[in-house]
Specification:
Order of helices and strands: EHEEHEHEHEHEHHEHEHHH
Distance between the termini: 29 Å
Radius of gyration: 19 Å
Largest sheet: 7 strands, parallel
Helix content: 40-55%
Strand content: 15-25%
Bound molecules: NADP nicotinamide-adenine-dinucleotide phosphate
Shape: globular
Length: about 280
């Protein structure tokens, strides 16, 4: 990957201190000058709720990678604020971290990402801002503790046999880095769905861990309310409702995405689950 420096060198990652943002920043390390943005980021503190710090943090950046906080009550408002700031700062290219299957009416946080995609496309046309959208499926690393042996049990609030096209977060980050580095000339106007190479259920994933390592892993599906009272008790009611809707969806629908685009953008085969088991 070679950076086209004609439009500036720096790349800003909004949400850089979170799980996704850290992976994208690591993938850009040594390739671009990365500005890490979030409320707790020491060099570029910003607040998407108010817009504070955004224009200053974006000024001099050629590209922005926008990652919204998970299950936020109003993601479109956060994106709008960031887009206004990016346009004011003269940013060339905004890459939006969406999700596979954004138009899923049973999942409000997916629907908010569908609205964000529409807003980004409209803003780009009206204001001359270049854009790209990435739509990752569920990350394999959501089950990192079981994959690495830090945990020997898994409790999920949905059907253990629902299939997912789990994609490695490192692969998603590598694709994001490539798109940011190659920039608008190659990727303006594109929406890329990023699935992993296998369709696996939680039961399949656990069985692979057991077969490869010999470690026994207990797995259980519990009611959403029961799961939430243990794992989601610190969340506000809106976030709890959004997560519950997602789990209810996962209980009776698979969540799939092709790996064909992921492979093309990586220039190699996407990472299978077995490569993440240690
Ligand atoms: N997990 C998956 O399988 C998956 C798949 C596809 C898409 N996604 C999407 O990926 C996105 C990120 O998920 P994640 O797990 O990486 O989230 P995360 O770890 O919770 O990170 C969220 C980031 O946003 C920052 N942030 C929160 N509120 C902010 C504010 N008001 N202003 C500025 N920054 C703020 C946080 O830092 P501070 O708290 O310091 O501000 C942090 O850097 C979500 O939108 C999710 O829907 C996830």
């Amino acid at each position: 990957m070679e950076l086209d420096v004609s439009r500036g060198t720096d790349i800003a990652i909004v949400g850089a201190t979170g799980k996704t943002g850290r992976a994208v920043a690591a993938a850009l390390d040594g390739v671009a000058v990365v500005r890490r943005l979030s409320r707790s980021a020491p060099d570029f503190p910003v607040d998407l709720e108010t817009g504070a710090g955004l224009v200053e943090a974006f000024t001099g950046c050629r590209g922005v990678y926008f990652i919204a906080p998970n299950v936020h009550p109003d993601e479109p408002a956060l994106l709008s604020r960031a887009l206004e700031a990016a346009a004011s700062a003269g940013v060339d290219h905004v890459v939006y971290h969406s999700v596979a299957w954004p138009y899923s009416p049973r999942m409000p946080h997916h629907m908010d990402k569908a609205r964000c995609e529409d807003e980004l496309r409209a803003f780009g046309s009206e204001r001359g801002l270049h854009w790209t959208i990435l739509q990752p499926c569920a990350y394999a690393q959501n089950f990192e503790a079981v994959l690495t042996g830090d945990s020997a049990s898994l409790v999920v609030p949905y059907n253990l046999d629902t299939k997912f096209s789990f994609v490695s977060l490192e692969d998603v980050a590598e694709v994001a880095a490539r798109i940011l580095v190659e920039g608008a000339e190659q990727h303006h106007g594109a929406t890329y769905e990023l699935g992993g190479p296998e369709m696996l259920s939680v039961r399949d994933l656990v069985r692979q861990v057991e077969a490869m390592t010999g470690r026994p892993v207990s797995m259980e599906s519990v009611a959403v309310d029961e799961w939430m009272s243990v794992h989601g008790s610190g969340l506000g009611s809106d976030a709890q409702q959004r997560l519950s809707a997602m789990f209810e969806y996962y209980d009776d629908r698979d969540f799939l995405a092709s790996s064909a685009v992921t492979a093309t953008l990586l220039g190699r085969s996407p990472t299978p689950i077995r490569a993440l088991i240690s």
